[in-house]
Amino acid sequence: MDKKIKIRGIIAIIFSAASVIMTSEMFVNNMKNGSGSVINKLLGAVLLGFILGGMVVGLSHIPEIHKKIKKTLTIPFAGWMAYLVLIFAIPYFGGWIFMLNDLVKFLKARKAVQ
């Protein structure tokens, strides 16, 4: 198993567990204190839990994101602004996607080793 996949997989497992714990805790607290529909509370808890949990994993993917969007830096001002928005927004809002992707890669590599 590749060392990079192993490290990212372990981090993904830790933050996936943290996301599930945060999601369940937020849902229970919203059910106790808030008013509104159960579906809205569940959806909000899932979105917030996985965005917060995946943020650290997403930040670890910044070098790969930089490689893919660094050509926008050749465009003065507009390209620089787009670069900054993407370099901060993708890891923050899409970190959970990277987290689940790393988790699946780790589990596949682990299964292939056995």
What is the CA-based Rg, rounded?
17 Å
Low-confidence stretches: none
The overall strand count is 0
Give the biggest sheet: none
Q: Which descriptor suits the 3D outline?
A: flat
Residue-averaged pLDDT: 89
What is the helix/strand order?
HHHH
Q: What portion of the residues fall into strands of 2 or more residues?
A: under 5%
Helix content: over 70%
Derived structural class: mainly alpha
The N- and C-terminal alpha carbons lie at a distance of 10 Å
Give the helix tally.
Answer: 4
Task: Characterise this structure.
It is a single chain. The chain is mainly alpha-helical. The chain is 85% helix and 0% strand. The protein contains 4 helices and no strands. The radius of gyration is 17 Å and the shape is flat. The mean pLDDT is 89.
Secondary-structure topology with pairs:
Blueprint: H1 3-33, H2 38-59, H3 62-69, H4 78-113
Helix pairs in contact: 1-2, 1-4, 2-4, 3-4
Task: Summarize this structure briefly.
By secondary structure, the chain is mainly α. Helices cover 85% and strands 0% of the residues. The chain is flat, with a radius of gyration of 17 Å.
Entry keywords:
mainly alpha, 0% strand, 4 helices, 114 residues, 85% helix
